[in-house]
User: Which sequence fits this backbone?
């Protein structure tokens, strides 16, 4: 059969047959990305997912595992879903020129969720994925003439609240960022905003606040702060001593967040919204005192009683 029967060759043939028709999603194996993927597939949108893996088979397995973790996998989605093996940072997203060009021609819009996130490490650790990777995604969006939803974080403006004006990042915000992750996302925002101002791309920046477990399935992110806090409280059978000034920002369920991002993509692709605009996808509720969280856990009962 030769190389024409390989997974990579089959992918190229499928992309060639889908000129300007598919949404490219990055970060589809992550907590937010897999919810966005499920939402797009529920809306019957053909999706190509960029997945880091050593083979096409491994990439497909990672993607299916992510949807199973989210409790959202449906076998009938196979026909809407393609998996492209690649990575953030390398030129051409690590795909090579031919595959990259074919991907660009098949892409009608991009939702860029992927990011490196390690709050203990500095900017240098995050630069390759979050800055160079964003630059490559912008290059692909420009070549495809595909509108881009760039998923960022409210951490880029650490001293604002959820209700703060949705303003663009500045070099001062990059310098003042509380973490290397936040600084790298601020730089990514600057790249997206600059490309939108030049007219290279039509893009929208969506900043996420705290994202909670799925309201539909209960599937959560076991590595986030709230999940680890709850596991620690249950294991220690004790709650951290807090003061009135200690609060926790209200969160938005991940499925609600995903629906909002897909609505933004549809608005942008339909010609609505201002290119370069910034949108906050956050809860409008006031911060919750930690003492109130303690009362909720006590009322819940075991293992928090």
Assistant:
């Amino acid at each position: 059969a030769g190389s024409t029967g390989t997974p990579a060759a089959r992918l190229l043939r499928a992309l060639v047959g889908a000129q300007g028709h598919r949404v490219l999603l990055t970060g589809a194996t992550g907590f937010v990305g897999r919810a966005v993927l499920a939402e797009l597939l529920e809306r019957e949108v053909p999706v190509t997912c960029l997945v880091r893996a050593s083979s096409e088979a491994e990439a497909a397995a990672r993607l299916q595992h992510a949807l199973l973790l989210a409790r959202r996998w449906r076998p009938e989605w196979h026909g809407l879903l393609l998996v492209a093996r690649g990575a953030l940072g390398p030129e051409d997203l690590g795909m090579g020129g031919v595959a990259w060009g074919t991907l660009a021609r098949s892409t009608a819009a991009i939702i860029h969720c992927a990011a490196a996130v390690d709050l203990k490490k500095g900017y240098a650790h995050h630069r390759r994925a979050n800055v160079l990777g964003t630059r490559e995604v912008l290059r692909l969006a420009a070549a495809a003439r595909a509108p881009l939803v760039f998923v960022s974080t409210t951490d880029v403006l650490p001293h604002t609240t959820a209700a703060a004006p949705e303003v663009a990042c500045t070099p001062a915000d990059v310098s003042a960022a509380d973490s290397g992750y936040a600084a790298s996302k601020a730089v990514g925002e600057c790249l997206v905003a600059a490309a939108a101002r030049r007219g290279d791309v039509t893009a929208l920046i969506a900043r996420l606040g705290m994202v909670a477990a799925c309201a539909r399935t209960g599937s959560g992110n076991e590595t986030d702060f709230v999940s680890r806090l709850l596991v620690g409280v249950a294991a220690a059978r004790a709650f951290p001593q807090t003061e009135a000034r200690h609060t926790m920002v209200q969160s938005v369920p991940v499925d609600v967040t995903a629906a909002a991002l897909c609505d933004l993509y549809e608005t942008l692709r339909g010609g609505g919204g201002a290119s370069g605009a910034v949108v906050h996808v956050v809860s409008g509720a006031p911060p919750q005192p930690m003492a109130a969280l303690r009362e909720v856990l006590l009322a819940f009962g075991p293992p928090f009683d």
